[in-house]
Amino acid sequence: MSGSIPFYQKNHRHYDRGYRSKEMESAVSQYQASSSSYAARSSSTSRGLRVSSYSGLEESRLSPIPKRSKPTYLAVDRDNQIIGYVVPIFRGSQEFASGLSDTEEARMKESAGHMARRNLFTSGLEMERTEQSSRKTAMRESAERISLSKRIHENEEYHKRMNEDSLMHTPEFVIKPRSHTVWEKQCVRLHCTVSGWPDPRVVWYKNNVTIDPLAQPGKYKLVSSYNVHSLEINRCDFDDTAQYRASAMNSKGELSAFASVVVKRFKGEVDEALPSPRSSAASGSEDGIVSEYGITFQTHIVEKFDVSFGREGETLSLGCTVIIYPNLQRYQPEVQWYRDDVLLSPSKWTHMHWSGDRATITLTHLNKEDEGLYTLRITTKSGYETHSAYVFVRDADAEMEGAPGAPLDVRCQDANKDYVIVTWKQPAVDRGSSIMGYFVDRCEVGTTHWSQCNDTPIKFARFPVTGLVEGRSYMFRVRAVNKSGMSRPSRASEPVAAMDPGDRARMRGTSAPWTGQIIVTEEEPAEGVVPGVPVGLEVTEATKNYVVLSWKPPGERGHEGVMYYVEKCVSGTDSWQRVNTEIPVKSPRFALFDLAEGKSYSFRVRCCNSAGVGEPSSPTEPTTVGDQLDIPAPPGRVVPIRNTDTSVVVSWEASREAKELVGYYIEASIVGSNVWEPCNNKPVKATRFICHGLVTGETYVFKVKAVNAAGLSESSQESEPIEVKAAIATPAPPYGISVLECVRDAMVLSWKQPTFIGGADITGYFVDYREVVEGVVGKWHEANIKSVTDRAYRVSDLKENMKYQFQVRAANMAGVGIPSLSSETFTCAEWTIAVPGPPHDLQATEVRSTSLMLLWKPPVYQGRDEVNGFYIDIKEAEAPLEAWRGVNEKATNKKYMKIQIPKEGETYVFRVRAQNKAGVGKASEPTEPILAQTKPGTTEIVVDVDDDGVISMNFECANLTPDSKFVWSKNYEEITDETRITMETKGNKSKATFKTPAEDDLGIYSCLVTHTDGASSSYTLSAEELKKLLEISHDHKFPIIPLKTELAVELLEKGKVRFWLQAEKISANGKVEYVFNDNVVSQGEKYKTNFDKNTGVIEMTMESLTPADEGTFTFQLQDGKATNQSSLVLIGDVFKQLQKESEFQRKEWFRKQGPHFVEYLSYEVTPECCVVLKCKVGNIKKETVALWYKDGREIKADEHLTFTEGVLTLEIAQISKKDAGIYEVILKDDRGKDSSTLNLTDQGFKNMMNEVFSVIANSSTALKIQSTEEGIRLYSFVSYYNDELHVTWHHKDAAIAFTDRIKSGVVGEQLWLQISEPTDKDKGKYAIEFFDGKGGLRRTVELSGQAFDDAYAEFQRLKAAAIAERNRARVAGGLPDVVTIQEGKALNLTCNISGDPLPEVTWLKNDREMVSDDHYILKFESGKFASFTISTVNTADSGKYSILVKNKYGTESGDFTVSVFMPDDVGGKKK
Predict the structure, then answer these.
(1) Which residues of 1125-1144 are buried (b: 16+ CB within 10 A; e: fewer)?
(2) Quick one: how far is CA 490 from the chain centroid?
(3) Is residue 166 very low, low, confident or very high in pLDDT (cuts 50, 70, 90)?
(4) How much of the chain exceeds pLDDT 70, in percent?
């Protein structure tokens, strides 16, 4: 199994025990010790369970020790009710050792060999007696044994030195390992004692494969002490059933001993209702194993995540489904995720989730820091399981083309009050332009503003950032720059506080809720002390850009804190210069910039406080300014090794003398492309790496670069080219061994092909057998020396009635694989049953969603008669045995059958039973579960007939491997005789070609592709299909040139006649003959021919047709052996019509040489009901004149035609009968003239008017209802009204006969219908119909119901209002507004009065009613005239006068003013 584990898992610390903490390691060791003790007694477990039934007398007779309480192995609840069994745990060794000191325990371990020999096979009662020994006796005996062993050992060593050769001998098994049969999930331990000199080395094998405990941590434990060797197998399962071999070897030879382990399954289940177990402390187990009930958890990781690829900025999720048995809700596993052996914790970059059966990790925003080996670790109380896969993160697209990739892994190496050293790793991608340097940005925590820390790019991947504010936290990021531009920024570093390291050291203590934190500081020294000399001054880092100094504070500091001045001195001089003259630094670390590169400097530091400046420290050794760290040398030889079909293992020699190496970058290139792509974007420190994501079948070369803070090394030499394909390994073991036939001295076996064939064809099988006598197995013997290719073999020379077991090994070009598990025990006894034996070698091909093809081989044992048929059974894979059901009711005599699948997506198994005259025999072994699903990329056999009529079957497979082969079969027997059919394979396509198809070729043809996931297909060649193919083949052998169009004729400009056809496909060698009335015509003045071989168009043109051209035209085509022809008959009326049309086209061409009409004269009615006469002309110039005529009389002349569209128009507004006539337009210039006529008389005028009427009708509005004082009016508006418009009104779909009561008319653009004094008879549907000579247009309205009632009520109201308006009292006139009169004069005013009934008349003066008297004479005569007379006017008569008339319909008044003046008033002023 170790061979199938990828190298990065072999080297993974998770697969070793070194990753554990000391506490966990101690707990696991204790658990293994206790379980190992139990496993040593597992063979007597059943005997141990029966101890509880022995009587006390039997116990006392068996053992001299005092009687003690009887042990019980029953689990009971609180009411002492038995609820199940528990597995006993051996506690003696733990209890015995619990009272010993460490020294005594060590001495006990030294005597382990003697105790193992003495007590290995003692009974349980003797071990109990040992357990009861007193501590004092045990210690005394132990001391005596140790002393005796030491003397014996010294004596043996003395004699060995005296005569080593005489003592040397081959290994010998003093005690051989014993075979065991255990229950599943129990532990078992195999012991053996080996002697020999020199001391033998013992190696354990399982089925001849070396057992490696590191390959399966926790599964195996090997212990060797004092020549006693043991193999412990933890939590046995069925795969542990095998033969185990202990091989002892020294310089004198080798010897092996064998033992078998058989694991049986216990069909019971753990009851979750059991009471909670005791605490781990009580049971003495720190790792929490549920030892009280003997529960062992089985953990299986399924649906595992694979190698994944992502890009910066994307989100990636990894997940596995975890199955834990038994599933106890109160026990949840510990789920941990690791990246490159580092435990991950949830963060904003990493989200983890456990749903109870699935563990997922989501990388929310991928960066190159996220690249690495991800490991999922599921830990239960019984152990752990892991799964690992690599995640690759590619660079995001650059914001600027050609810019490098982003740096990664930005960290703060050291943080002080005002100083932080930032480090990072260089990117693998520079996009063709070397990186010039890096810019460091910083951002204060809590803000989003990033500021650049360095003005010029730095090449060293380490930079001290200064100028920080003490106590504040910062984040940093880095950007790379090359000549193309700036990279994207790296992921920001974790926040770091600018704080003195001493403050951090003194900030110890615990948080308090009332203060937040307790800070414990050192005791302050005395006041007023000048600080002492700093100590430990050294240059911690020196580059060409800066030098970093560090020192330790002085012991004497004074009362307050100290600060520092840094001084420098050029080597060779004694001139010290203070660097920080303005502000002393607070932290004992300082970075110096602006030093001259290449010069040597010494440095010293002074302390200062308020008391003064102290003495300088001792100067440093001279330091030369420059990069002290060199770029590493290129790595050595690069060796690629095949791994999988998409990956290659690349190993290389490490860079020599590389300082501070960060890791390596690997690049790959397809041979010949000269394009290099990075295989990893995060440096790897190992010298071996798996490059994933390669293209299968391509050939790659690789090179490696080393990285440190100084930069990237030169690339290594390119590796040897390697093709990407899976590595070849030995096949897995076969399985499913069964007996097909048995006679007295031979047995015929069959088995199933291994699930993994190792990437190469299986070349054969080897069968071994061994005898089984009373349950004891013998040695294995080879049944065949030469391998057999079939999966069935007859083992001869066996003993009758003897029991045997068998094992089978598969072989390929890589070697012989490990043997299969031992078969069941079979008895070699001759079969005498009448029915046949089981068929064998069942195979399923052509698996689709709805069907599959099942193949099998007939039984070896025929029974009493020959086999005459087979039955196929089917059932769901998870269904019980009772679910088997037959597929075919009638037995088939073939050895294959197409089976229809009942349900798509379900998993099924199949078996076959053979039948003879005696009956139906035993069923075969069932197939492996088969999923009814059509796999993506599945193709079918395609039958093709080529141009030569050759019939072939073609099959294509896109999932080929380098070792894949196409295997063609007829009726599912491989075709080896190529007399009737030949096979050819090129690339991923294979062709089977029939030579002379006939009835002998009928059958089912299938093609299977080896080394794929079952790519196969079949094609049934029936008699009907063969007939169809032969017809197509005949057409291809004797081909006809296909024509897209037959021979046709068309007219071109100037009346030319074109005969043409188009061939669908014709080669450049095609030929054409043009035939007229059986005579071949050729190119000349009369006939013009053309053959376009690209388009297949063949044509012949003639200038014109004459009577002599009447006849049959034929085009004859020939292309190799393919021919065709097409004819066109032109005689009689057909020819005459074509000739007439040709002449017309010829005349038209000549007409268009001068000014001409493109579109002849026509008319158009506009929405405004105007008639526009228009025509379109062409080929005009400035001198062209257009003349308009009506009835031969010129009405308009256009001498300067400047229009752009070439359209002439004549507009006729408000057309009437007088506009009828014949209109003509004449175009003329020096090139000629053309005319166009339009007849607008009689029917022409009528049709035009109908169009006008149609426009009017379409412009009409919907009919509306209006009430008037006379009745109800219906009306509609039109955009324009013409007197010629014919309109009809309808009532209840009948034309209305107009009377004095019902009238119609037109007012402007309103068409109305007046219904005077409407009655109920006038209710109904009304319509107005416009006549346009076609279908007309009708507008309708419903005058009934509420609409009629509302209109009628409005009519009554309007009618009453009209009557009231006509009969109300009125003052018709005669009264002036103002009357100016001289005093003494007489005034007489008269006005007309109307109204019915006769109104009452009242006169008012200054709003007071007047009475007629001698002075004021008021009269109302004849009911019409009212008079007002003042006989003699005086000044008192001045004022406002009113007449008020009134009757029942209303009141009206008339006002006037009288102004009286004195005769002597100047200007006639008022009095």
Answers:
(1) bbebebeeeebeebbeebee
(2) 26
(3) low
(4) 85
Tell me which residue has tokens 């670390």: 589
Task: Please name the residue that has the structure tokens 């752990």.
Answer: 384
Q: What is the DSSP letter of 877?
A: T
HSE toward the beta carbon, residue 559, CA cutoff 13 A: 5
Query: Any idea what DSSP says for residue 136?
Result: H
For residues 1156 and 1179, is the Cβ–Cβ distance under 8 A?
A: yes
**CA 760 vs CA 560, 697, 757, 845, 965: distances in Å:** 81, 16, 6, 20, 11
Residue-level pLDDT at 294:
57
Whether residue 511 contacts residue 520, with contact meaning beta carbons closer than 8 Å, is answered with: no
Tokens of 1028: 């169809």
Q: How far apart are CA 74 and CA 86, in angstroms?
A: 6
Those residues with Cβ within 8 angstroms of residue 1055's Cβ, 6 or more apart along the chain or in another chain: 1103, 1104, 1141, 1142, 1143, 1144, 1145, 1146, 1147, 1149
Length of the chain: 1471
Q: Is the CB of residue 1153 less than 8 Å from the CB of residue 1179?
A: yes
List the beta bridge partners of residue 1306.
1311
Contact 562, 531 (CB under 8 A): yes
Structure tokens given for 1431? 């006989």
Q: Which of the pair, 281 or 325, is modelled with greater confidence?
A: 325
Q: Which helix (H) or strand (E) holds 102?
A: helix 102-110
Query: Residue 110's beta-bridge partner residues?
Result: none
Distances in whole angstroms, Cα of residue 539 to Cα of each of 565, 602, 627: 16, 10, 13
The residue among 383, 373, 396, 371 whose CA lies nearest residue 305 is 373
> Cβ(1367)–Cβ(1395) under 8 Å?
yes
**What does the pLDDT read at residue 112?**
45
What is the rounded distance in angstroms from the CA atom of residue 38 to the CA atom of residue 33? 9
CA distance 1433 to 1437: 6
Average pLDDT of the segment spanning 681-688 = 92
C-alpha gyration radius of the chain: 58
- Scored b (16 or more CB within 10 A) or e, 679-688 reads bbbbbbeebe
Give first-to-last CA distance, the chain, whole Å.
143
Window from 46-60, 193-207, 564-578, 1196-1210 with minimum mean pLDDT: 46-60
Burial class (CB in 10 A: 0-12, 13-18, 19+), 332: exposed
Strand segments (E) across 1280-1353: 1287-1291, 1294-1295, 1302-1307, 1310-1316, 1324-1330, 1337-1343
- Name the DSSP class of 892: B
Contact 906, 876 (CB under 8 A): yes
1226 and 1210 Cβ atoms separated by less than 8 Å:
no
Q: Residue 73 pLDDT > 80, yes or no?
A: no
The percent of residues in the chain predicted with pLDDT above 90, rounded, is 37
Decide: 568 and 650 in contact? Cβ < 8 Å.
no
Rounded distance, CA 1351 to CA 1347, Å? 6
Phi and psi, residue 936, nearest 5°: -60, 140
CB 1468, CB 1461: distance < 8 Å:
yes
DSSP category for residue 1263: P
Question: pLDDT tens, 178-224?
Answer: 988 888 888 999 999 998 888 888 999 998 888 988 878 788 999 98
Res 1126: pLDDT: 92
| Residue 856 near residue 842, CB atoms below 8 Å | yes
Q: Checking DSSP bridges between strand 966-970 and strand 951-956, what pairing results, if any? A: unpaired
E strands, 628-660, where?
638-644, 647-652
* SS3 assignment, position 1323: coil
Using alpha carbons only, what angle is made at residue 274 by residues 270 and 280, rounded to the nearest 5 degrees? 95
